[in-house]
């Protein structure tokens, strides 16, 4: 694998944060789900991005409000790609983004919830900028996430995008208006997947050891912050998180993810999530529709 570029160094000087970035720039409908608060260019294809993390959140803070979840970091890093694509790489609003790969490694000891909302700083290095007709259509980027000077996570993301007309052709006319999710199957007990609320459980009881049907609730206010014609990548990552926790019988905690997304996961087809635990505590999770993989994720875990 080629050597990745060095990450940008962030200035220690910060301006008072007064608002989030416009929610449209990070593909969110709710301001409450918009975690980025600003950005600046620090060099050629290097950027500093500021964020704010809530002290309480339906999904991204632990039930006892003691810790930020690793997937909060993943969502923050995902939002960085959309923000920079629109503001720095000439991508029009209304283009559809495809998350192709996400690698994330977190340090749980630095993700504790404090007495005020956390304000992480991210150094973003963009590379492998692919162009079509002179315009970027895909990028990769690295993220170094720090909080109070301590590194809390590193990430690598590959993302591409396409215009509305091409997207319509790719999706064969499928839209949020004409595609409906399957009826929700029963849910695992929340405690089996380290969740407080049954509504946040995304796995049904297993039909055989290590295999669950994905529960796709299009009314969920976080996963479906706005209508979609497919299962979003963050829901698939949550499925990987919950499957890894269930496969380890709640004895280990997910701290890292390496996910590859192969194709769209359709709302009107059942998605089967399979998990296999390795000797080192790493759990390999695969999501399939009609026997074809739609995503794969290696989840690193640590003992509780």
Number of strands: 11
Alpha carbon gap, first and last residue = 33 Å
Shape: globular
- How would you write the strand order of the largest sheet? 1-2-4-5-6-3-8-11-10-9-7
- The helix content is 10-25%
Number of helices: 3
Q: Specify Rg, calculated over alpha carbons.
A: 19 Å
SSE sequence, one letter per element? EEHEEEEHEHEEEE
Please identify the structural class as seen in this structure.
Answer: alpha+beta
Amount of beta strand: 25-35%
pLDDT averaged residue by residue? 93
The residue ranges in which pLDDT falls below 50 over 5 or more consecutive positions are 1-14
Structure summarized in a few sentences:
The protein is of the alpha+beta class and 304 residues long. It has helices at 70-88, 164-170, 233-247, and strands spanning 36-43, 46-51, 96-106, 121-132, 135-147, 150-162, 211-213, 252-261, 272-277, 283-289, 292-303.
Q: What does this molecule look like?
A:
The chain contains 3 helices and 11 strands. It has 304 residues and is an alpha+beta fold. Strands 1-2-4-5-6-3-8-11-10-9-7 form an 11-stranded antiparallel β-sheet. The N terminus is likely disordered.
Structural topology:
Elements: E1 36-43, E2 46-51, H1 70-88, E3 96-106, E4 121-132, E5 135-147, E6 150-162, H2 164-170, E7 211-213, H3 233-247, E8 252-261, E9 272-277, E10 283-289, E11 292-303
Antiparallel strand pairs: 1-2, 2-4, 3-6, 3-8, 4-5, 5-6, 7-9, 8-11, 9-10, 10-11
């Amino acid at each position: 694998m080629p050597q990745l570029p060095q990450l940008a160094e962030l200035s220690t000087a910060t301006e008072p944060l007064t608002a989030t970035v416009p929610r449209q720039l990070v593909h969110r409908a709710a301001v409450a789900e918009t975690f980025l608060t600003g950005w600046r260019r620090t060099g050629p294809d290097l950027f500093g991005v500021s964020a704010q993390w809530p002290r309480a959140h339906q999904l991204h803070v632990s039930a006892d409000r003691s810790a930020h979840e690793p997937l909060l970091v993943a969502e923050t890093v995902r939002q960085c790609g959309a923000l920079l694509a629109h503001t720095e790489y000439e991508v029009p609003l209304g283009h559809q983004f495809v998350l192709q790969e996400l690698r994330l490694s977190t340090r749980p000891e630095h993700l504790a919830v404090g007495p005020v909302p956390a304000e992480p700083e991210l150094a973003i290095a963009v590379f492998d900028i692919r162009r079509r007709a002179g315009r970027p259509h895909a990028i990769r980027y690295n993220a170094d996430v720090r909080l109070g000077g301590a590194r809390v996570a590193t990430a690598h993301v590959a993302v591409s995008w396409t215009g509305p007309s091409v997207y319509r052709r790719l999706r064969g006319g499928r839209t949020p208006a004409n595609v409906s999710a399957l009826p929700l199957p029963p849910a695992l007990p929340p405690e089996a997947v380290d969740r407080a609320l049954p509504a946040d459980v995304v796995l049904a009881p297993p039909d055989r050891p290590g295999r669950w049907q994905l529960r796709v609730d299009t009314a969920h206010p976080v996963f479906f912050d706005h209508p979609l014609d497919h299962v979003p990548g963050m829901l698939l990552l949550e499925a990987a998180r919950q499957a890894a926790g269930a496969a380890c019988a709640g004895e280990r905690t997910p701290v890292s993810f390496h996910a590859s997304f192969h194709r769209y996961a359709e709302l009107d087809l059942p998605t089967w999530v399979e998990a296999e635990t390795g000797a080192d505590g790493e759990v390999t999770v695969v999501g399939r529709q009609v026997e074809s993989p739609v995503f794969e994720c290696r989840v690193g875990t640590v003992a509780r």
